[in-house]
Design brief:
alpha/beta, binds inosinic acid, 6-stranded mixed sheet, binds magnesium ion, 35% strand, 9 strands, single chain, 3-stranded antiparallel sheet
């Protein structure tokens, strides 16, 4: 069985949107230094591209969290698998994430990072699926694309750890007739 992939957001549209977000963030944080925090593994491609479009000083750090017990559905509690290397106290922190689905992962992460007393804390996500939101009133300050309730892959997003390296965002269509 092989997977057929339908392109949802082509590479050039992503690149254009990343440039726009980089400009907007650079304007909003003028005169400040941004501590970019990437949520591994999915956010790594977006962080890399976005950070190259940011013109104010910035640092990068990485965090790896996972939802307890869940498969493709998020359960509401996150486990820290890798913590940040540096303190974020007094820093202007921007969390860079691949996608917001139920919102549980980022809501928990935001609460955890707030407790470390940053000067400010915002979220930048490449994709948002608001139809799937379970955490009420939760929305990112910066968003690349709002997408419908479909399971997507590429540009960091995986299906069973595969497809992260695709330069576009696609939808997997399982093709049971092929091998
Ligand atoms: P949450 O439901 O907002 O907590 O999302 C948890 C995580 O599930 C995201 O950070 C992604 O890693 C993953 N995820 C959610 N939707 C998708 C998808 O459509 N494709 C791939 N991963 C997804
Ligand atoms: Mg993720």
């Amino acid at each position: 069985m092989s997977d057929r992939i339908k392109v949802l957001i082509p590479e050039d549209r992503i690149n254009e949107r990343v440039r726009e977000l980089g400009s907007q963030i650079s304007r909003d944080y003028a005169g400040k230094e941004i501590s970019l925090i990437c949520v591994l593994k999915g956010g790594v491609y977006f962080l890399t591209a976005l950070s190259q479009q940011i013109t104010v000083p910035c640092t990068i750090d990485f965090m790896c969290v996972s939802s307890y017990g869940a498969d493709t559905v998020s359960s509401g509690d996150v486990k820290i698998k890798k913590d940040l290397d540096a303190s974020i106290e007094g820093k202007d922190v921007l969390i860079v994430e691949d996608i917001i689905d139920s919102g549980h992962t980022l809501a928990c992460l935001r609460e955890l990072l707030f407790s470390r007393k940053p000067a400010s804390l915002k979220i930048c996500t490449l994709l948002d699926k608001p139809d799937r939101r379970e955490v009420k009133g939760f929305s990112p300050e910066y968003c690349g694309f709002v997408i419908p309730d479909v399971f997507v892959i590429g540009y960091g997003l995986d299906y069973d750890q595969r497809y992260r390296n695709l330069p576009y965002v696609g939808v997997v269509e399982q093709d049971s007739s092929a091998d």
